Amino acid sequence: MAFARHLMINPAALAAFLFLPVLLEAQQPTPASQPPQHYRLVDLGTLGGSNSGNNGGGRQINKRGVVTGWAETTQRDAIFDQPSFHAFKWHDGVMLDLGTLTGGADSSYADAINSEGAVAGWNDALDPTYGAGFVATLWKASGEIVNLGSFGGPFSLADDINDRGQVVGGAETTEPDGFTFFGDFLGLPSPTQYHAALWQGGAIKDLGTLGGPGSFAMDINSVGEIAGFSYTNAVPNRSTGHPTLAPFLWRNGRMINLGTLGGVEGWANAVNDAGQVVGGSRIRRGGPMHAFLWDKGSMRELAVAGEYSSDSVGTLINGAGDVVIETNGQNQWQRHYLWQRGVVTYLAPLPGFGGPSWANEMNSKGQIVGQVVDPFFIANPRAVLWDNRRPVIDLNAFVPPGSDVVLDEAMGINDLGEIVSTGLLPNGDHHVFLLIPVGE
Questions:
Q1: Own/partner pairs for 70-75, CB < 8 Å, 24+ apart?
Q2: What DSSP string describes 225-282?
Q3: pLDDT (tens digit, 9 = 90+) per residue, 195-253?
Q4: Could you give the CA distance from residue 209 to residue 247 in angstroms, rounded to a whole number?
Q5: How does strand 108-113 pair with strand 119-127?
Q6: How many other CB atoms are there within 10 angstroms of residue 256's CB atom?
Q7: How far from chain centre, in Å, is Cα 280?
Q8: How far apart are CA 277 and CA 1, in angstroms?
Q9: Does the pLDDT of residue 29 top 60, yes or no?
Q10: Which end of the chain is more exposed for a tag (fewer CB within 10 A), N or C?
Q11: Confidence category of residue 270, pLDDT binned at 50, 70, 90
Q12: Taking a C-beta distance cutoff of 8 angstroms, is the pair 299, 314 a contact?
């Protein structure tokens, strides 16, 4: 799959050696120009409240143009004492409230949608011992809401769903989490250990670990192969303070350790249908992180030369094996590059928008959507499309004159080229918008 994960991580990896680095000089594309494509802009609205949005996790729009996300309702969230947000599914002008597990005034959020219209995400939860958290939730295409449960612990999180209806993520066990890594590093409530989870056919399967006290699943492809990360032991390293962390691929019923670029910290972000995995690994103990591509048993380093060479991670991969690399340079601003068969192209920002950027999703054609930001004020964000080495396109070019809407972040794109974006209304509210191609 080619999707930014809800927990998209700036990676690292583990123990031994492997292939020599392949430093790649980035090509510079031409500046922004007149967009070659035209779009019709649709405001998806809300569920009665002021705002709607997307998590930017798994697929936000499926191949049929069905969009998922969350929207504010007219209710109050009993747990957080704020407006209640519900997961939604939008198609052909209708926003369907997917509801919550309790049916009350709490909140639910969608993370990914499959081709059949089934949605994976989570529902607010309140544990009497550990406080606020969430529980993995599946909204079936039929409309049934399913609590996906855990391995006995209080919380769980669904991160992705494929067209078989298989859902992956992580669920807590009853074993204490002595390192609190999944809490401190991922920002998840972590009173007990998380294990990578596969939910299918009404059952939850513990994918286990690589030998340590925790694991998490990030992505699943159409044939049920799963990418994620796991501790390999329970001995903390001096350089990290936690046990060795390694990327894994779960295939044919077992978890495969994908290896390392030389360090003791790394993980996988995404896997495509060919079983190719991308993520990041530290190249030595305590050293920088570099992006990797794992394919047919071999891990290849995808380092980017120059100013932004200190840290990098592979975040997205499509069926053609195109990889989006996120880098962090000396000023810590994020930059993104597209790797295609050994050639790296810099995903340049709009003129005057040299601050951090985000690449959120890529389709099978190599079209990438995301956001660029004003470098001086770290503000004034713009939703953009990077399209097969063409100049970067400001999606605000397709906002009807006089509407005063500012599209600030593109969150998803399908193979039809339909784009999901968030946008700021003149009154300060945020809505989800859909850009529908209308021809050259």
A1: 70/107, 70/108, 70/109, 70/110, 71/44, 71/45, 71/46, 71/47, 71/95, 71/97, 71/432, 72/46, 72/47, 72/48, 73/46, 73/47, 73/48, 73/49, 73/97, 74/47, 74/48, 74/49, 75/104, 75/105
A2: -EEEEEES-S---TTTSS--EEEEEEETTEEEE---SSSSBEEEEEE-TT--EEEEEE
A3: 999 999 999 999 999 999 999 999 999 999 999 999 999 999 988 888 999 999 999 99
A4: 11
A5: antiparallel
A6: 16
A7: 15
A8: 10
A9: no
A10: C
A11: very high
A12: no
Mode of pairing for the β-strands spanning 131-139 and 119-127? antiparallel
100, 108, 203: which is closest to 150 by C-alpha?
203
Chain segment 84-137, per-residue pLDDT in tens: 999 999 999 999 999 999 766 689 999 999 999 999 999 998 888 888 889 999
CA-based nearest residue to 75, from 107, 98, 118: 107
**Average pLDDT score over residue span 349-360:** 89
> In this structure, are residues 392 and 384 in contact, taking their beta carbons and an 8 Å threshold?
yes
> Phi and psi (nearest 5°) for 120?
-110, 145
What is the spatial distance between Cα 360 and Cα 373, in angstroms, rounded to a whole number?
14
User: Which 8-state DSSP code applies to residue 154?
Assistant: S
Closest CA to 431 of 393, 383, 392: 383
| CA–CA gap between residue 279 and residue 271 (Å, rounded) | 9
CA distance 53 to 422: 6
pLDDT at 31: 43
Tokens, residue 92: 């052909």
CA–chain centroid gap for 296, Å, is 24
pLDDT at res. 52 = 98
Structure tokens at 216: 């998490």
CA pair distance 276, 268, nearest whole angstrom: 10
Give strand ranges (E) for 244-378.
245-251, 254-257, 266-271, 277-282, 289-295, 298-301, 311-317, 323-328, 334-340, 343-346, 357-362, 367-374
CATH number 3.40.50.11540 given to 26-437: no
Contact 411, 10 (CB under 8 A): no
Identify whether the C-beta of residue 402 lies closer than 8 Å to the C-beta of residue 412. no
Q: What residues form DSSP beta bridges with 13?
A: 265
CA-to-CA distance for 373 and 384, rounded, in angstroms?
10
From residue 338, how far is each of 297, 325, 327, 346, 427 by CA, in Å? Answer: 23, 6, 11, 7, 36
Q: Where are the domains of the chain?
A: 26-437
Output the CA torsion 329→335→336→337 (10° steps): -60
For the ranges 193-202, 253-262, 337-346, 415-424, the lowest mean pLDDT is seen at 337-346
